[in-house]
Amino acid sequence: MPARRGAGTEVQPGLQRRPRQRLRLRAMPARRRTATPAAAPAAGTIAARLPIDLALQGGGSHGAFTWGVLDRLLEERGLVIAGVSGTSAGAMNAVALAAGLMAGGRDGAREVLARLWQQVARIGAWHEVDAAPLPLGSGAASAWMQAWVDAWAQVWTHDAGEPARRLARGVQAWWADALGRTFSPYQLNPLNLNPLRDLLARTIDFERVRGCDKARLFISATHVKSGRLRIFRQHELSVDVVLASACLPLLFQAVEIDGEAYWDGGFAGNPSLLPLITESPADDLLLVQINPHLREAVPTSARDIVERMNEVTFNTSLLKELRSIALMKQLIAAEGRPGHHYREATFRRIEALRVHRIDGGAPLARLGASTKTDTSRAFLARLHGLGREAAERWLRRHSRALGRRSTVDLAREFLE
Hints:
alpha/beta; 8-stranded mixed sheet; 416 residues; globular
């Protein structure tokens, strides 16, 4: 598909695809019995080569759901990933995808993604990033305190049932919240220890990420002083950029890049869609959403209220962007000028844009925000399975819509 040029947009030569190599697929790590079994792949679902953009949302350990989605999509040889926008856990998945594509194509991407989440499982109790905290009090304990509480909970709930484990998680959340309301990471974590730094450095080859000519990458972070969204592009990507995108201000000190401080990108763009629309040649945009955008029941307990506030906070920027796209599409249609040669390239891109979405549905929503810090191997394997199943269902229902029409009715969702 020919690349479209937007105003001031430079088409990267890397989007002219290299000949595909034959690669030997390494076996994926065996899934534990606790994982939800994935549906059998629909081989050859997409026959033609279709460029597609991916927008990957952040959401703590629930990012393993996105891993499962990507794992299944990479099996579709007809899908050509043209651009990826990611925030927080979505940023981690994005750089793993790019590094893997450069190392070994689709199979290499699957391997690097699997290795990333295996490493996340190994750091266990230290892994508290991207828990979607709220400025009003969803704090986090220091690493040593959290590790102590985790160890206590494991002993106390050994061979116990799910009610006891839920109670233990509640005690953990109470400790974290109490400390987070009282102390900042500059007091609790003065050395600014972050287990993700070493994890990313040993798992992701950032030279390959910066040199990736398979897809364009955009990583979001929030500029602390102004509150504005900062989009980091391909040549700027580094360990610090990903840490900035996943920097929860009640857990870690702000990440400084070129003398400027940044927090989690989820506050300002989770993820940002505009760079994909204006700078990527694909007209199909697939959003992988892991924060529930709809809840049927009104929360009444304090904990459920805080969790829903978290979800709303970290979905707000995305919903505003989707509503703006819906409004622009409506205005273009109202003018009755399809195919018109607009002076502003963004209007052409919005008119041609087709939006799709894969989300976790009820199974992911039932897990609750408190599980976003659960990095146990069994839980991550379960999320991976849920992601593969969700991608499989979407492909079976909507793969024929790619290149033809949107499968998300933006007008109905955001304008009625």
